[in-house]
Amino acid sequence: MSVEVLLALGSNLGEKKETLMRAIGDLCTHPKIEVKNVSPVAVTAPVGGPAGQPDFVNLVLRIETTLSPFDLLRFTQTIEDKHHRTREVHWGPRTLDIDIIQYASLEMDEPDLTLPHPRAAERAFVLEPWARMEPEAELAGSSVRNLAEIADDADGIREFFPAPVVCG
């Protein structure tokens, strides 16, 4: 049975926008994943981590999948690895980050995966692209649009580019 999942993708090293587009293409290649909707691309200030990092490009996408949450996590991590993601500095610069924000209405707190994503409701770099893609979206019973407006990093949204065309 297919479930709807929201993923957040970000990059602040290398060819950032191109990396996001290639990562979406990688998602499209999996026979058990169908990309349903893609947000505009946001240019955002880094949140947390070491000072002096370059700006991020961020987007969210809605997929349908029959993969389990852990199988999806493993697949997204292989995509990150393919794009030379390293995990040396917590919240440090990265070529690619893919987070599972929501997996249907599943709630779980495991060592490798917490759903919904524990900080999504506080991050404008996730919420603002999501609200532009799905204006009526809710997270934990709250309007994603309202959460985006009050997020501490709301002033870190620099600009937006149109949603990319993917999977075809």
Task: Give me a quick take on this structure.
It catalyses: 6-hydroxymethyl-7,8-dihydropterin + ATP = (7,8-dihydropterin-6-yl)methyl diphosphate + AMP + H(+). Keywords: ATP-binding, Folate biosynthesis, Kinase, Nucleotide-binding, Transferase. This protein is α+β, with helices and mostly antiparallel strands.
Percent of residues in helices comes to: 25-40%
- Could you tell me the strand content as a percent range? 25-35%
CATH architecture assignment name: 2-Layer Sandwich
- Overall spatial form: globular
- CATH fold title: Alpha-Beta Plaits
Multimeric status of the protein? single chain
Compute the number of helices.
4
Descriptive report:
- This protein is an alpha+beta fold and 168 residues long.
- It has one domain (3-161): 2-Layer Sandwich (Alpha-Beta Plaits).
- It contains 4 helices and 10 strands; from the N terminus they run E-H-E-E-E-H-E-E-E-H-E-E-H-E.
- It has helices at 16-28, 69-82, 124-133, 144-150, and strands spanning 3-11, 33-38, 41-44, 56-65, 97-103, 108-109, 114-115, 138-139, 142-143, 157-161.
- Strands 1, 2, 3, 4, 5 and 10 form a 6-stranded antiparallel sheet that branches. A two-stranded antiparallel ribbon has the order 6-7.
- Strand 6 and strand 7 form a beta hairpin.
- Helix 3 (124-133) runs antiparallel to helix 4.
- The longest helix is centred in the middle third of the chain and has 14 residues, at 69-82.
- The protein is globular.
- 36% of the residues are buried.
- The mean pLDDT is 91.
